[in-house]
Specification:
about 240 residues, alpha+beta, four-stranded antiparallel beta sheet, globular
Amino acid sequence: MNNTIETILSHRSIRKFTDRAIDPKQLETIIQAGLAASSSSLLQVVSIIRVTDKSKRALLAEYAGNQAYVESAAEFLVFCIDYQRHAAINPKVKADFTELTLIGAVDSGIMAQNCLLAAESMGLGGVYIGGLRNNAQHVDELLSLPQNTAILFGLCLGEPDQSPELKPRLPAHIVLHENSYEPLNLGDIEQYDETMKAYYSSRGSNQKQTSWSQQVTGKLSGESRPHMLSYLNKKGLAKR
């Protein structure tokens, strides 16, 4: 096993940071690692907004559901779908196809993961903030996003001030299919549920008595940010 694999397999979401700033050269390397990520057809449809304004950080923390680490992390990056630069090059660009929105979301995820892995390889930590989409329009206006762009998620980065336990993932034999989709073995899920129950009850903070199945089916039984479609449509995205 090499250092890269060790970094990937030791990933944990960090939500508590020290006051130490990230060295500018480190941040530059993190961004360059993101820029090196794969890009569909080299469209390069991602923009990153580095938020350094303290008042904006405070508002973003509030918009994300009062997640204090958005404000306290050394760095906070917001990843956006961006077809505005393409429209500026040629006004005839048609950015409203759903496929292009999917490309923007996929490429943003790939780029952000490159940034986080680079940061973790330096001993830093981070956590993704999908909660920005709770108030997508407010975040959009705060960051002055033009048409043909849309916010997706944020990324906190900094020096970890905690060492949380590794969270167990679904075993590979549940996730990996060969040649065609294979039916789910509920017995395998029951075993994973027991693993997660043990994890939740024994971890150092935020202990709870629940299984993975109960948690995710509860989350998926209600609405999930139904305002997002109208937000994207308003920005000229995912219309057809």
